[in-house]
Amino acid sequence: MSGTRTPGPAPAGGGGALPPGVRGPLSVVAFGCEVGLLVLAGVTGWRLGMLADVPGRRALAAVVAVLVVSAVVIVWARWNAPRSPSRLRWPLRYLTQLAPFVAVALLAALVGLGWWGAILAFVAAVAFGLSRGNAPTPPPDSRPA
Question: Per UniProt, which keywords does this protein have (predicted)?
């Protein structure tokens, strides 16, 4: 065989070809960055809420944490999720992938977690750029309008 595969279901052992846009180990790092973003967003939101000098400070911190994480999830689901009907095309999608990392990193810097945010944003920029940046884009729809 020449090393090419015909499209079809993957073999039962999971040794099939990777889906379009997935580039192996860096995709795992990119996914880890996504999870890390949610964790950092939650911790940053909690610390932001704890900065307020109000009687219900813990409740406020929980609400702020949920709001920050929700904002990240909404942006990601709207423009970056693989099955989103309004998923952006490359390279605009790359910018919307990095925007939550930069925003959370800036917020994290306000509460003393700047290095965590900077490292996470840098690793995410590299991982997303290399793992999905060279993904083949489907040809434009050739059907008449």
Answer: Membrane, Transmembrane, Transmembrane helix
- Residues whose CB is less than 8 angstroms from the CB of residue 92 and which lie 6 or more positions away in sequence, other chains included: none
Residue 16 belongs to some domain of the structure: no
118 φ/ψ angles, rounded to the nearest 5 degrees: -65, -45
By the 8 A CB rule, do 40 and 107 touch? no
Neighbours of 64 (CB within 10 A): 20
* Residue 6 within a domain: no
**pTM of the entire structure?**
0.70
CA distance 68 to 9: 39
pLDDT tens across 54-100, in order?
A: 888 899 999 999 999 999 999 888 888 778 888 778 778 888 888 89
